[in-house]
Amino acid sequence: MARPRLETDARGGLHPVGNWTLRELAPHLADLRPQLAKVSRKTPWRLNGIERLDSFGAMLLWQSWGRDWPRELEISEELRAVIAAVTAHVGLRLPRISSFTPLDALVLLGATLLSFMRHVLDFLVLLGQLVLDLLFLCRHPRLWPLREISANVHKVGVKAMPVSALVGFLIGVVLSYLSAMQMKAFGVEVYLVDILGLGIIRELGPVLVALLVAGRSGSAMTAQLGVMRVTEELDALAAMGISRSIRLVLPKVLALTLVMPLLVLWTSAVALVGGMLSAWIQLGTSFAFFLESLPQVVPIANLYIGVGKGAVFGLLIAMVACHFGLRIRPNTESLAANTTASVVTAITTVILVDAVFAVVLRNVGVPM
Amino acid sequence: MRSTAETVVDVRGVVSRFGDNLVLDGVDLTIGADEIVALVGGSGSGKTTLMRHIIGLSRPVAGEIFLFGEPLWAGDYLEQQARRRRFGVLFQQGALFSALNVGDNIAFPLRELKVVREKEVRELVAYKLSMVELEPEHALLMPAELSGGMIKRVALARALALEPELLLLDEPTSGLDPERSVAFVHLIRRLQRQLGITVVLVTHDVATLNALAGRVAVLADRRVISAVSLEETRKVRHPFIERFFQY
Question: Which pLDDT does position A92 carry in this prediction?
């Protein structure tokens, strides 16, 4: 393998020798480019020293010749053919992606708005389809996808219990510990049970579980539907005449709506245990006192609100996940983008809806 | 332009197994420069396994593979990378990067070299596109928008981007209709003659074999039972070969 070089002869003519191929040229390009750039139109060329020439080498020479054959050129027919083949095409322009203009910004804005509208419309269609499916299933009770619902309950509910318990417990401990320190300073330790009870049962429990579930189960649901699209499983189901909304979407939505209130109860309970433990260590509050005063200071309405919020969040997360899952087109880029969008949208929606709950229910269950 | 009679691929005593299942047991195969060699064999005969060994995607249990006279796995990362840049692979499904458009897919190996300027990359991409009989306008399409035949062409252009000396084709005509597959085979043969490259292909399509192969390596009974020209292969007495060519 001869290294490519550019030799100058006595008459000032250029004499490329060696292998002028991409692989051989690559390590020496830094030296060769300046030499090639200095070439004038009058320089005579002798190309019979070239052992091999590929399209990159031919292009390099063509560039240095200013895209025309040199006036004085010694070349074999074989090499001339190689260069001619390349030069026939290097003039072809690849279409460029045009640069961003203010008009494009306007178009982008419009497209974003329209795409948002389409999302909302598709989401409503999905919701309507679910209602229709439910009505259909009420008339044909034998067609309920019970196995799928049960499998989803296990997947999104039972399997989420350890991680939600761990997170709930730690949040309970931290909340109780930090509040107790402040309250001790003001001498109002007796209100610790109120704070923990109200905060966890009404607000923290449902939101915490919703965030966990959106990240854990929502993303999995979106990705599952997306992979089924990529592998044409969705088409196979449709070809068998099986409704994907009854067999895939409905079980997920029903399962998560049923399971979320239970997960909220479970997580809130564990968080309260964590708070109670911390209060006992920090303030010496006995378990008996904590458990006895809890129902007295926290109206039962808060429990209903917490559990109800859980059900609504579950419905929203599952529907957002299925909405984005069904929009995935059969390529990896779309899969990644929609899974991200699914989780982000689910979390944002949950927090927005939680704020609506807070405003609407501001007079319910709060001790005056 | 190239020193002939040099050995490009040399497979020596390769043994391969999946669990208890012995797939290849002492495979020997030598492929010289400018040859077109087809690997044929029944399902599960280990053609794809042997191909993966030659590409370096998996290592045989025993035996050794030499590419361009050097052991495939010799040297450090950069030496192995340099060796791998000397061959191009056309995967069965194309294996185009679905996040990149056609032009960027073909430009990818060129940009990885980090010495080719962007303007040159664009010109080379236009040239490669014309080589596989596609138009410059196709450069902006995404792989998801391509038909099966176009995917194969783009994948071939990407495999040829670094001007390889050896081209490995895994089932080049699978998934193409007879007309397209004839056109694709003609394209491969034209490029092979024009660029003077060695081609190794895995196929089970007799039409492809007839049109392309200079030599046929038959994998059966866990080894290469014959590696001779197509006419001579037809005369070999072996149950697999007789069944394979009876159509």
Answer: 64
